[in-house]
Automatic annotation (TrEMBL):
Aldehyde dehydrogenase domain residues: 16-473
GO terms, molecular function: 2,5-dioxovalerate dehydrogenase (NADP+) activity
Pfam families attached to this UniProt entry: Aldedh
SUPFAM superfamilies in UniProt: ALDH-like
Entry protein name: 2,5-dioxopentanoate dehydrogenase
Length: 480
């Protein structure tokens, strides 16, 4: 899919070059070869996109909710029609195995389908005040929303962030990551094809320091959704605060995967592989990157895990391996540096730790055993196929270790003790708790973090609250 076609910005229903004329090249991380050139938005382009969205907002807001739902349903169907095309585009742009890319495309379609069904069900409450008054609330859209979309799940997160915004009557300006802009542009094109009016969805690829910062700090943007690193999230929050713009942040994680002796160990082993290696090469904010194993099963479980990890296939995403490449040279360098930090802190990994000699940003599935929870590889988000194994002796220690990080996105437990599972859920400082399945949940289940993992919720009905504001109406009806 290497192409001479150049991709432009989508503003007000038209694909146009950046005002500066600047472009950047997106690379296939499996080969390091160019895919295509993409227009690089800067402040002037963001201004144009926000202005376009503002002009489109009154009509879109006044569009009947059921009609908004029909259009989003049509977009979901159009995305599904192009599953193979979008999946290949995603794999070439991001590197992930093609089967995972297909799943991500289906997830994107499902988000638009799900929120299409909610569009005409966003309502308020009636509040009894006495017979002298009628009081009620209504939920209204915020206006122009900005979505800063990360590179790890580009097509999926287009649906997760944009679908609820449009369903609630907002308009959107989306800034996809410069590493992976192609699927967002294509979905913007599909939106126009199915009849979503120009300006309702604008897509402006570019770099964070220019396009991203301009969008986050724009005075005419009414809400910002950002998914990415803690460092950048803080900057986005500060830019939003200058304009008193509400900001939703979904940031990093260092999530504990806790395995007790009474668990189904075969199942726990499969889920541990999925949690850190076999999903986007560990480039997942909710990856199970810390494995906490009870001392009585530590040796057996970790030996089996090392064997399984060493058997995982690593290769180009189009070959559908177990583990694809990392997304970019920067990410590749970062993960390799953490492997070296792990060697200094713990010693050699029990499996992996190498990078293949051929082209592409590959790192082997890597496991460090006997890690102390205070080590950097246990505390800092690596965002790659690197697992830290920590031993514990009892339930209390496990729960304390699980919470002993700055992050609080996800926590998971494998046990057959129902009481223990729910004690764990109660104790965890995390936005999601998985019991006996990693990545449990779906489009319908709210997602977001505690502590340094951010605030606000996406997915499920909670996302509608993030994209609406409440108005109270109170009428005195008592006759004098």
């Amino acid at each position: 899919m290497t192409t001479t076609e150049k991709h432009d910005l989508l503003i007000d229903g038209e694909f146009i070059p950046a005002t500066s004329g600047e472009r950047f090249v997106t690379l296939n991380p499996a080969t390091e070869e160019p895919i295509t050139e993409v227009a690089a938005a800067d402040k002037e382009d963001i201004d144009r996109a926000v202005e376009s969205a503002h002009e489109a907002y009154p009509k879109w807001r006044s569009t009947a909710p059921e009609e908004r739902g029909r259009l989003l349903t049509a977009l979901a169907a159009r995305i599904r029609e192009e599953t193979d095309y979008l999946a290949e585009l995603e794999t070439r742009d991001n590197g992930k195995p093609i089967s995972q890319a297909r799943s991500d495309v289906e997830g994107c379609a499902r988000y638009f389908e799900y929120y299409a069904g909610i569009a005409d069900k966003i309502h308020g409450d009636s509040i009894p005040l006495t017979d002298k008054y009628v009081d009620y609330t209504v939920r209204e859209p915020l206006g122009v929303t900005g979505q800063i979309i990360p590179w790890n799940f580009p097509v999926n997160l287009v649906g997760r962030t944009i679908a609820p915004a449009l369903a609630a009557g907002n308009v959107a300006v989306a800034k996809p990551a410069e590493q992976t802009p192609l699927s967002a542009l294509k979905i913007g094109e599909f939106a126009l094809e199915v009849g979503i009016p120009p300006g309702v969805l604008n897509v402006v690829p570019g770099f964070g320091a220019t396009a991203g910062a301009s969008l986050a700090g724009h005075p005419d943007v009414n809400a910002i959704s950002f998914t990415g690193s803690v460092v950048t999230g803080r900057q986005v929050a500060k830019l939003g605060a200058d304009n008193v713009t509400p900001v939703h942040l979904e940031l990093g994680g260092k999530s504990p995967n806790v395995v007790f002796p009474d668990a189904d160990l075969d199942h726990a082993l499969d889920e541990t592989i999925t949690a850190i290696f076999a999903t986007n090469a560990g480039q997942v904010c909710s990856a199970g990157s810390r494995l906490l194993v009870h001392e009585s099963i530590h040796s057996e479980f970790v030996d089996r895990l090392a064997t399984r990890a060493s058997e995982l296939t690593v290769g180009p995403g189009l070959e559908d391996p177990d583990v694809g490449p990392l997304v970019s040279s920067d990410q590749h360098r970062k993960v390799r540096e953490y492997v070296e930090i792990g060697r200094e802190e713990v010693g050699d990994p029990i499996v992996g730790g190498k990078t293949p000699d051929h082209d592409g940003y590959f790192v082997e599935p890597t496991i460090f055993d006997d890690v102390d929870n205070s080590d950097r590889i246990a505390q800092e988000e690596i965002f790659g196929p690197v697992l830290s194994v920590i031993e514990f002796s009892d339930e209390r220690e496990a729960f304390e270790l699980a919470n002993d990080v700055d992050y609080g996105l996800v926590a998971g437990i494998f046990t057959s003790d129902v009481g223990r599972a729910h004690r764990f859920a109660h104790e965890m400082e995390a936005g999601q708790v998985y019991i006996n399945e990693w990545f449990a949940g779906g489009v319908e289940t709210p997602f977001g973090g505690y502590k340094q993992s951010g605030f606000g919720r996406e997915k499920g009905l909670e996302a509608i609250e993030s994209y609406t504001q409440v108005k109270n109406v109170c009428a005195r009806i008592e006759l004098e």
